[in-house]
Specification:
The radius of gyration is 20 Å and the shape is globular. A twelve-stranded mixed beta sheet has the order 3-4-2-1-5-12-11-6-7-10-8-9. The chain is built from twelve helices and twelve strands. It is of the alpha/beta class and 339 residues long. The longest helix is centred in the middle third of the chain and has 19 residues, at 178-196. It has helices spanning 18-25, 40-49, 94-110, 123-128, 136-144, 169-175, 178-196, 221-235, 246-249, 252-255, 266-277, 312-324, and strands spanning 6-10, 33-38, 55-58, 72-77, 115-118, 150-154, 159-162, 202-206, 239-244, 260-263, 282-286, 292-294. 37% of the residues lie in helices and 17% in strands. The two termini are 33 Å apart. It has two domains: 1-146 and 289-339, 3-Layer(aba) Sandwich (Isopropylmalate Dehydrogenase), CATH 3.40.718.10; 147-287, 3-Layer(aba) Sandwich (Isopropylmalate Dehydrogenase). Helix 1 (18-25) packs across helix 2.
Length: 339
Amino acid sequence: MTRSPRLIVTSGEPAGIGPDLCLAIAERDWPCDVVIAGDIELLKQRAQQLRLDIQLTTYVNSTKLPIHQRGSLRVLHVPVAAPVQPGVLNTANARYVLSTLDAAAQGCLSGEFDAMVTAPVQKSVINDAGVPFSGHTEYLAERTGGSYPVMMLATDELRVALATTHLPLLEVSAAITAETLTRVIRIIDHDLRKHFDIATPRILVCGLNPHAGESGHLGREEIEVIAPTLERLRSEGLHLIGPAPADTAFTPHMLEQADAVLAMFHDQGLPVIKYAGFGDVVNITLGLPIVRTSVDHGTALSLAGSGQADASSLVAAMQMALRMIHAPTTQTIRPALPA
């Protein structure tokens, strides 16, 4: 990029550790402008509770893009609807959480922000407030006009994307069709080229059933849907491996042949990558017209306001966002000052 980028970080569930994490990243230098979407008074209260000396100011958009300096934080103020007690959910603040996402997404679409990074939200309290919400991935696709969102978790060594996301296991098989697989694989191929500078992405595709169906004896999805779809996409020039048995897809020999693994459902692929790099795993939404990354964990209500929250995943998500927009590297980031 010819200028320093600007990241917008949504502060997530106000009763969770999201505000704590946002304050923690303020204790580092960043090679970009950093703006937090959230309630500035809530952040001030949480900083006081955590005994953090951070100068919080209201964000005002300008053509100048300052480089973030440790000890300060600019906040795109979105007011909470009700007082916040760390660790205690309140449905009154559910729409506040969505408002922070809306503000960040709209800012990215307009070009005000170069990427959005999201702290964790509590899906249950949003649904309890009467707003159907299955997750950031689907919500942001709707808000940004993303044709088909694809969830991918990544570390420096491994990328795992999902053919289906937040579905009950009973519904997974019916959701894996030639059409959906084609869309997902094309999006992965496109975004690996665009955001990761991989000229010819190699995608390792898992089967759905044990042993990838065992030639039809353990299920026919591989024979009737997955394999024919892969063959057709190969004829178009995509580099695809599989369908491979999921129990061997994540072995070193298989992974060294691939730039990304496509798992058929949530708990087929994500336990592996979270075991391999929990705390450094980044959740990336592919298929959007904006860059969006997120942490790999939940709201950790019991840790909110305790000073025990680990910001490493949010740091990794911000670093990943900078790499995806081809911003200067973050190798110059200095460690946080002791609390």
